[in-house]
Specification:
about 675 residues, 6-stranded mixed beta barrel, 18 helices, about 25% helix, Retrotrans_Pao, RT_dom, Reverse transcriptase domain-containing protein, Rev_trsase/Diguanyl_cyclase
């Protein structure tokens, strides 16, 4: 159970294997002279495992001292420090792309800086830039202050080296000098080879020489750029940033008694005071980086974004997708969607029952176009500066209900790139407990159930987010999916499939129930609906027919004010629904929250799974037990014996897919 690199040394591995009577090729109990295992070393392409490769044996590390750096001595292993440096790409003021700018990422600095000399070379207008004063507090109580300019510079960003470079504007303060010479610790040939071998980092920037930084990126932009931190062997860290991957960390070596303490003479911790006469800033806790506002969690961030961006256009609510501010760039996904479209078309044409599934699929899109749920993008609007993303779709057809549903896969992504769902906040879960809703359902004399028609599609999607929901479909079903026969569409409403859609629906309904003028006229009913709505299913209770009819009329009026239609009404007292039109009702024996309900007799029905399997295993039995949906625990007495039986199987120490002994098979079937 040990990690292999911790107990094996490359130079002595064959000897250790010989002592353990293991094959030196496959590490198993076998004679290596007759071993047929075929391994290919990732390091030298030899026919052995890379753990025994001699080509990249661990090199001896040499202690080095660098000018302008102090040296401390102590009786422990040398620890070289590899700082976060990288050459980056920027966009000059004249629109020219400049590559190879030397940057130093310093989380210890509260502000970001650019050398005044570089700012002039990049054609940044320093005359018009606002003047500020910098107070810099450094090591050993060294402090200084100097005049600076606040300028903006566009940095080249991309989530993956295969992606197209995008430029985003960041604010920097000018300084005559930012750092002295920054030292680089030595990496072994093997480490460099392995880093460059990694599929995502073929263009990794590995520092090999000391240099003076031209740009310092501080804590004000640090977390906007960093996307992931991965710990590698020997103390190295691989920091994924939108500028590109960066190698850094404290490197453990074994062959020296001194350590080099690398710190540049001008790398200081900066405190920015734009107005030094402001005593509150100068002496307040905020001045030393202590603030009274803790970091928001993701659910709070999603809720705050929703509260700031929700609007009402007429009777309809318009919402925005809660995008993560520091999410990596989103690719278009167009080629992926084209491939998935071909796959979907082949599947639709291959299904014989029903034979017209392709036409049904096409009719769904036609109906949604007519209802303005989706829209076709004109050719002159297909090329836009807005972020665009295509989503693949596929068919889900239920033979028992003869019903087709089109599912959009918002989690689809290209390798090494994020999906749409990866860039969105999920949002808080605003649903009540199922058990609580069902208990209220069982308590009342009269219960009424209904749902919101096409609930997600009743929410308008903000125009700036619609290009994130593009998808492809055919103009003519009888022609192949060529470029001329493919049209580009996008959603005008919130689509089901985005990870944030349930939150957006729940938050919108709650917002409406708390803020609508009509809902405020009936606060008790609005509160009852808020406590008993589960996604698009609504439960009402009443003690009399008159009360039930009154509540139905009120909630229909409340939801109509949000352009939401209530339908499929069902009650355990038919008289309550007598004033409703027939199209608003549903046939009896409906499932409510997954439970079969005979509303005529006001009884709920549970069905136990059929035990038809052969060669029962622990996995199959657990699947049967978990298939019983019983949120109120009403069936526990009936299923207790089966659960005790399953518990007893652990004493046999069987594997999940090993068939049970014959006597246990018989006991289970009984």
């Amino acid at each position: 159970k040990h990690v292999v690199p911790k107990i094996l040394n490359r130079r002595s591995t064959p000897k250790k294997l010989a002592i353990l009577k293991k094959c030196i090729w496959c590490f198993k109990d076998a004679n290596h002279n007759i071993c047929l295992a075929k391994y290919k070393c990732k390091l030298c392409d030899g026919t052995h495992k890379d753990i025994v490769c001699k080509k990249f044996a661990i090199e001896k590390e040499k202690s080095e001292t660098v000018q302008q750096h102090s040296l401390a001595t102590q009786s422990q292993a040398q620890r070289d420090i590899l700082l976060m440096t990288r050459q980056i790409t920027v966009l000059a003021g004249n629109g020219k792309v400049i590559r190879g700018i030397k940057a130093f990422i310093d989380p210890g600095s509260s502000r970001s800086f650019i050398k005044k000399e570089l700012a002039s070379k990049l054609a940044i207008d320093l005359k018009e830039a606002p003047e500020i004063t910098i107070n810099a507090q450094g090591m050993f109580n060294h402090a200084t202050s100097f005049a600076s300019k606040s300028v903006q510079l566009k940095l080249g960003l991309r989530g993956n080296w295969r992606q197209k470079l995008e430029f985003k504007e960041f604010r920097f303060c000018t300084a005559e000098k930012i750092t002295g010479k920054i030292a680089t610790a030595k990496l072994t040939d093997r480490e460099i080879h392995l880093l460059r071998k990694r599929p995502k980092h073929e263009k990794i920037n590995i520092p090999t020489e000391n240099y003076e930084a031209e740009i310092l990126i501080g804590m004000d932009h640090f977390w906007e750029l960093v996307t992931n931190i991965e710990h590698l062997p020997r103390g190295i860290c691989l920091v994924e940033t939108l500028l590109g991957p960066i190698v850094c960390g404290k490197i453990n070596t074994k062959n020296a008694n001194a350590i080099n303490c690398y710190g540049s003479e001008n790398v200081l911790t900066y405190g920015l005071f734009e107005n030094l006469t402001d005593q509150q800033k100068l002496y307040g806790l905020e001045g030393i980086g202590i603030t009274d506002s803790p970091t928001e969690n993701e659910d709070e961030s999603a809720q705050n974004l929703f509260d700031k961006t929700i609007t009402k256009n007429g009777n309809s609510y318009c919402v925005r997708l809660p995008r993560r501010p520091n999410a990596p760039p989103l690719p278009t996904n167009k080629n992926l969607c084209l491939s998935r479209l071909n796959s979907t078309l082949r599947k639709l044409k291959s299904i014989e029952d029903p034979p017209n599934l392709l036409e049904m699929y096409d009719k769904t899109f036609t109906d949604q176009l007519n209802e303005k749920i989706i829209e076709e993008i004109p050719e002159d609007e297909q090329e836009t500066e807005n972020l665009c993303h295509f989503i693949p779709h596929q068919a889900v057809y239920r033979q028992d209900k003869k019903k087709l549903r089109i599912v959009f896969d918002c989690s689809a992504h290209i390798k090494g790139h994020p999906s749409l769902n990866d860039t969105l906040y999920r949002g808080p879960v605003l649903l009540p407990k199922v058990a609580a809703v069902l208990l209220r359902w069982r308590q009342a004399k009269i219960v009424i159930a209904c749902d919101i028609k096409a609930a997600f599609l009743m929410l308008e999607l903000h125009k700036e987010d619609r290009d994130l929901t593009r998808f492809l479909w055919l103009r003519d079903l009888n022609k192949p999916p060529t470029q001329a026969n493919i049209k580009i569409l996008r959603f005008r409403r919130v689509l089901f499939g985005a990870v944030s859609s349930p939150f957006l629906l729940g938050a919108t309904v709650i917002h409406h129930l708390r803020n609508s003028a009509i809902a405020k006229k009936y606060p008790s009913i609005a509160k009852e609906v808020e406590n008993s709505i589960y996604m698009d299913n609504i439960l009402l209770t009443a003690n009399s027919e008159e009360e039930g009819k009154n509540k139905i009329n009120i909630i229909r009026e409340i939801f109509l004010d949000a352009n939401m239609e209530l339908r499929e009404f069902l009650a355990n007292n038919e008289s309550v629904l007598s004033e409703l039109e027939e199209t608003a009702k549903i046939a009896p024996h409906k499932k409510f929250l997954g439970i079969s309900w005979n509303n005529g007799e006001d009884k709920i029905k549970f069905s136990f799974p059929k035990a038809n399997a052969v060669d029962w295993t622990m996995r199959k039995i657990l699947r049967v037990l978990n298939s019983i949906f019983d949120p109120l625990g009403l069936l526990y007495p009936a299923s207790l014996k089966a659960r005790i039986f399953f518990q007893s199987l652990w004493e046999l120490k069987l594997k999940w897919d090993t068939p049970l002994p014959e006597e246990k098979q018989l006991e289970w079937m009984q």
